[in-house]
Queue: 3 jobs
Job 1
Amino acid sequence: MQGSERRAISVSVNGSRHDREVEVRLTLADFLRHAVELTGTHVGCEHGVCGACTVLVDGLAVRSCLMLAVQADGREVATIEGLAPGEDALHPLQQAFKDHHGLQCGFCTPGILATLVEYLAENPEPSEAELKVALSGNICRCTGYRDIIAAALDAAARLREARA
Amino acid sequence: MKPPPFRYHDPRTLAETVTLLGTLENAKLLAGGQSLMPMLNMRFVLPDHLIDLNKVAGLAHVEAEGRTVRIGAMTRQRDLERSALLAAKLPIIPAALAHVGHLQTRNRGTIGGSLSHLDPSAELVTVCAALDATVTVAGPGGTRAIPFSEFPLGYMTPATGLDEIVTEIVFEAWPAGHGFGFAEYARRHGDFAIVSAAALLAFRDDGRIGRAALVLGGLEPVPTRLSAIEAALAGETPSEELFAELCRPCAELEAMGDALVPASYRRHLAPVMARRALARAAGIAAAAIH
């Protein structure tokens, strides 16, 4: 049967290797949630519009609903669960979002933070206007974006300080 | 929403890919997946076979030899956006890419995928038309070159045969210091354009326009080449008034209408985007001289 085509894959998620046999049609988002059981990656629209499922694959922010799990074979995936440096510590992005109320329900937050990890590494000192464009692919239905932008600007400053 | 069942193939060479495409029934090529994956998730397409191009060697590159620039079909939009070579030779491509989707989609999306999907509003389609690109396709009979003017056959229908694959897009760069402008109106940043315009201007030594290219995207199912305006621009001194006057008749062009955007609104945008793209091109060329 066609639906039963499966493949063995090996994906590194937040530094741990996961060997699984998956259906070839499984998306990376569903692989992370159902096979690896990391449910911090959220699935919103499932057609690449909302940005909630954004993760980093080999350091690049991508929509995990628009990639197949088999395409992540042999690659490094980073999700929200791997962002904090430890149990009791938050990443500067997480701390800034907490301090500025950059989230309400939190559904969109993992995707926003994944996007910002790549974007701020490349653009450490963005303007407010540039940040709005950078986050245009992440939809939030609670906050009205104001606090998200404030948090992102503050996170950029904290990351610059940490690097200095 | 989950993709329908399919058989998955991930060939490593172009020859293998062409053989698979020529022998498998109801096969689809998967490039960056930013259009096909949503269509699979929504089950708008039900292929029996999915041929993933992401491991095929030799399809991702940006190369130049003299004025000829070659871009591999699987080159990511993000790599085009950041290419120093394109910024120097074909600067309208990175300018247009600033409007294409988002960081996350450009990290995966490819130029070959965008042209093969051929959305009427896709920025890269409009720009390839303005640059008179040539599309190289490979099939069982070998390769052939398709001039971009013959590439879009109709709504989302490229001239690529069912057993052919786009491998490379070839451009002839305009002279150094040429003017380029890309303008579009979309409801949100990153959305497909409702109407877009790509303009290129080369100037003579006396400051008058030597050569012009002007194309509208999103208005009709295929790019709208504004040849009459291009001809009228030659020999003229650029000015806002000239651009406005020459672009005014664009409001009478044929235009698509749909549930969200009536044809009358696209017609309203046509002259506005055309003159803005020209003004940007003229401004950039002037800045390059001074």
Job 2
Amino acid sequence: MLFNSLTFVVYFAVLLAAYYAMRGWTARKALLLVGSYAFYAAWNPPFVILLWISTAIDWFAAGRMHTEERKGRRVALLCVSLAANLGLLGFFKYGGFMLENFQNLVGFYGMTFEAAKPDIILPVGISFYTFQTMSYTLDVYLKRSAPSRSFLDFALYVTFFPQLVAGPIVRATDFIPQCAKPQNATREMFSWGLFLMTLGLFQKVVLADAMLSGAAETVFNWDRGPLATLDAWLGVLAFSGQIFFDFAGYSTCAIGAAMCFGFSLPDNFRCPYAAVGFSDFWRRWHISLSTWLRDYLYIPLGGNRKGKVRTDVNLMITMLLGGLWHGASWTFVAWGGLHGAYLGIERALQRRFGGAAWIRTLGGQIALGLVTYLLVNVTWVFFRADSFSSAKLLLLSMFGIIRDGAQVLPTLDIVKVIVVITGLVVTHWIHRSIPVERAAERLPAWAHGIVWGAMLVLLTLTQGSDNAFIYFQF
Amino acid sequence: MPSSTSSSSGGGGGEFRRETPRGAWTRSAIVALVILLVAVGVWEGKVRAWGYAPCLNDSSDLWARSRSQVNDDPDQMVVIGSSRILFDLDLQTCADSLGVALPVQLAMPGTNPLPILEDLADNTEFRGILLIGAVPGLWMAPQGMPVDRANGALGRYRNWSPSQKAGLVFGSVLQKRLAFINADDLTLPTLLQKNLQLADRPGTADNLPPVLPPYFAWPDDRRQNRMWELCDFGTPLAARIQQIWVPLFTPPPPPPHIPPEEFGQMVQAGFEAHFQRIAAACDKLRARGARMVWVRPPSSGELREIEQETTPREAIYARMVGASGAPGIHFENHPELAGFECPEWSHLTARDAVAFTRALMPHVKEALEGS
């Protein structure tokens, strides 16, 4: 079920009414759990079984691990959990990719291996909920937290519908304690939650889909040779905005929906296009994934504790696997690799020039911020392109290495991209120092209501098709 | 361990909690709701004054529902084709004349219906009456939008999720009551395009996708599309749409790197492949007991001249009908069908659709009896 669908509006209203009509806290949690399964089943009912498998195995593994003192047994239980989750992910998401690469590899050595192309449907959000449940067993294994004492609470943690299919990837330590006592949204919390849902939908439906997706799709789907430099850049800028509004919009909706039930979910984005440098970017972009990778991959690899070279290697491994998490394609790995390289270069530059005074001036920060945004856009080419050859052609077009490329964007699309992307970057710089919550507090209620009303009107006018959120495919 | 992903409170071992900013958010919500209701009311009044009325969107969900109805009764009547048979065939008149239940309408605007024909042959038990609308240029389309649309609709049907099914029900309730919910003509992107009218850069036009006709039909629950009155004879909308058909129905020139003769051979080979696919699908359907009949609905004006030149009747229509082994009814062969004119050169008005269907059905009956 998509947040931007009428079905969700009806589902959400019915679930809210039933939740607040019930008195017992256990009954309300059970309702949320059943409602969350229904939310997931609305795509493809049989895939709910995957959620049950993941839930049951991690509940069992973490529970046994907690009472087990023998290291070998604990490792074995952790392996069961990781194998189950990564096995599901590997089969459904990477099965075809692995087979294709195996065929290429044996072909490289002059052998042939023919296998039927697997016809596997990717379950929505599988990368999110497998990572979420893995963090639970890993925390128990590392003795960072105790397992949940309630199966209902744990099942709700795995399945809670607002964040189930596209994050934020929530830690058990953030969510399960909230299940201990009844959660009720106050009237103001409820209204703020609805506002966040409107804001998220506005980002997705109006800004990502109606304003930017056209230019991005035209440029990235162009298969008749090079593009004019202006068109190439505008297409990539459009995608940078589209993916932000799409994904941040989903996270904002998820946070708002959870608030309406009295639950708190963590932030997933903090004005990433106002980042100064790449380590700053990753503190602002898809925060719940970057912290997951930091805590469960980068730090266990040794983090920055084993010298400069090893730190760079660890960063690169983390970013390459982070890229692969996004999709079964080498272009995603290249995207991660580029970010890994940026982080390594940034560390080297910081060691050399980190003390320069101009870096801390406003002009210096803005200049470095714009360079960061520009380089992030280069990485989006690999993220969105369907092959290395099309990515290469687009990059050559962007940097004017191939001239006389085709002009493919209508003037209206050009205007939309320039207006929206300029607004996006300026807004991120403003909210870099003043979070949205603080800015909203400064507005009188009527002015805030006008902004909210305008977003609702534009949402209604746009109507929206049922375009799925981009991150569902990950 | 707090995840440190939020500025929200929760560090130091306490329960993770998002902060709700201080403010009278409920009052803001009321202001927002009032603005929304007033704006929607004003907008609804305005679009009704422009001539719009509540009607369903002919969405992929509506098509998927029609496609699923084929499975309910394999002996019923089904219609496939593109927009002409969608507009020009009045389903009720057809049902009354033939004495059958209301046909399932699977025709889709701007599509090559070949994938739909193959789907009926390969994935259903269908053995009823199949009325096949013939717009030869579309049946021969090798790729691009006409094929993508047909495959897209089939994909929607095959992967039609419970939430999409429910969305069709909820959406229909609103679409039948509010005129401004018109996904074809009154969305924000369309309104921006219509009102800003920004000229494109020189040299861009050749690379832009073809301009598609604006909204001019009202579909109902059974996907009966009826032409909007504002598109009647002599209206500005009809004149505008006429000029949109011309480039759409004019084949692109051969690519510069392929000699014209070689390109012509490639195109002909593509046509032959389509004839074979039509024959194979129709053979399967006939073997199950299905009875098929082709209908070539009228076209007018410059569009008809273009069609005669680019898809000559003997070279395409006659070959398609011949390959299928089914009878064909070409409007040019029958004076009572040949007299109809299309206001925008391609489709009949709603009233002419009824008259055309009434005149067509005796020929259909005769063709079916002979098949």
Job 3
Amino acid sequence: MSMKHLNGPALGAAGILLFLVTWEAIPRLGLVNERYLPPASLVMAKFFGYLFQPGFWGSVAHTMTAWTLGLAISIIAASVLGLLIGSSLFLRRATRSTIEFLRPIPSVALIPLAVLLFGLKIESSLLLIVYASFWQVLLQVLSGVADVDPVADNTARSYGLGRMARIRYVVWPTTLPYLITGIRLASAVALILAITAELVIGTPGLGQQIALTQSGGAVAEMYALIVATGLIGVLINTVVRLVEKRVLTWHTSVRGEATT
Amino acid sequence: MRYPKRVLHFLGLPVLLIALWWVLTLGATNFFVPKPLELLQTFWAVWAGERFLTDFVPSVLRLLVGLGLTILLGVVFGVLIGSVRWLRSLTEPMLEFFRAIPPPVLVPLLMLLVGINDQMKIIVIISGAIWPVLLNTIEGVRAVDPVLSDTFRTYSITGFVRLRHLVLPGASPQIMTGVRQSTSIALILMVISEMFGSSSGLGFTIVLFQRAFAIPEMWSGIVVLGLLGLALSVISKSIENRLLKWYSGLKEVQHAS
């Protein structure tokens, strides 16, 4: 059977299988030393072993707690500030240069500061996560508020809708898709920074375990933990996309993904 | 808007914030927060001298080489995978998985596989930052205007000309979105790879300052990284504006109609 007759999911499964077989073969054939790249079967065995260890789930819980808290703080702060700044032309113009200056500062530059201020506490992770994901949400909310249709807004005014009612019925529906896009971007960034803080600073979580296995020479375990972080990433992406579809059923057909 | 008003809008808040910082640290001796003037002096003393050549330049070179290769490889493989349907289906789940791995975990992995050297840092940047460019290129190539695509086919335009005049321009808005995301990941990875195993570079230096409790020096390093991030964002935005002029024009026309 030629490749063309297979359908998408079957080919995708074949792709995963091909990847695993290649991974298994490279160390087995001695192309790369087994000490640095353990075969896939060994790593998978370690991974399934982890699933029955409470310590592993403890690390996952640490990472996910920092992720959830950091993301929640960023979303709330950025939505409030975004709606506030966005609804005033003066504030929008006055804050623009400051936002454009602060936004590109890489969150990892704050690592030494976090270590000094909070040491190994969860606040260190939160500082990095919030700084990185706050801007993602804020910028999206700002463009969302700026995108409000002036005709719709004026119509609402003519019908005597008050400020709160206009926010509820005009600004909010326009901003929501942008907010969701911001949350989708921020949720990926937040995971990166949660793991980074654990890896580099040593706050408890999966990243810290990866650093420990690496320095302890437990290579197969390290690979297993990296696979675990990837699976968490896939899970987060999937859940966020589902929520996005759910919330924006009325809207997805209108807005393409290209603008993100 | 009149010119002076614009300047006021641009400078107002930053000046206000710096003034606030200056006033608040005037009499205080908070160990963690240096005074503005002190920071400026330290910045000049630390980064204008030898460190500029031994730490700043190597870091930036690694970043630029890594980012250049990232974009090149991402676009080449993206065009390839995006134009062959079975290849796309075959690789899609694996690519989704690779993209979801937080890139910093690749640092300890590649330290093992490659060792601690410049190549490791560049490979870390490529292997962590390539996914946004790659996946956005695939999406962009796949979503090329079907009418244009059919027109090219009718005139039997194929190969390089098709690539140059249809596929790459059509996918360029998506590619640039990917490049922007990849750039910020590359900067993160440059810093982390230097924090982990290195004896030079920006990441190494600011951690060194922090461990020595040299607080103003540490802040000056943070400022350097901030300025680097700002410069990258300004450069990529101006390239994007130039490359995608036709696209924003097209969008305006579509919005107006």
